[in-house]
Specification:
Length: 199
Amino acid sequence: MAQAGVKARSRRRESVFGERFAVFAECLLTGVWIAVACLGVVTYPAAFAAGARHLRRRTTHEDGGLRKFVTDFRTALRGGWVVGLAGWAAAGVVRLDVVAVRAGLPGGPFVGAVGVLALIGLAVALLRAAAVWTPDRAWRALLADAVRRTVLDPAGSFLVVCGLAVVTASALLVAPLAVPVLGAVAAAAVAVEERYRHR
C-alpha cells in the first residue's frame, strides 16, 4: 500500500515536471515565431501580442499552434504597425540624446539618462500591453492601461526589464540564443500581468 502511494507521488512529480518542461519548450518555440514575425521591422508589437496570446492559450490548455499564431499576428498588425513605427521613432530620439551626450552639450548626461530610462519604460509598457492583447481591444487603450500598470506595479515592471536584460545578454554572448529567448520575455510579461491581475 505504501509502495503504491510512493509510486503515485512519483508519477505526479514526473507529470508536473513534464508539464513545466513542455511550457518552457513552447516558450522557446514561440520565441522563434516572434523573431520571424519581427522581420517586418515595425511588426514587433503584433509579434509579441500573438506570441503572448499563444502562451496564454498553452497555459490554459486551449488549442493553439502556428495557424492561430499567424491569425492573431495578422489581427494585431492592423493597429500594431503604427505602435511599432512610434517605437522606432522614440528609439531615434533617444539615439539623438546619446549623440548629444557624447558631443558634450550642457545638460547632455541628464537628458541622455532620462531618454534611456523613458525608452526602457516604453518598452516595458509595450510588452505589458502585448501580454494582455485580444482581438477586440484597440492598441491605444491597451497602451494607456499598460503605462498605468508599469508605474503602479514597479516590481512587475522590473521583472520585465530583467527579461529584456536576459535577451540583450544572450544576443551579446551568443547571438542565435536571443531568438528563442524572445519567447521567454513574452512569457515573463504574461506572468507579470497574471500576477498583477490576481493582486
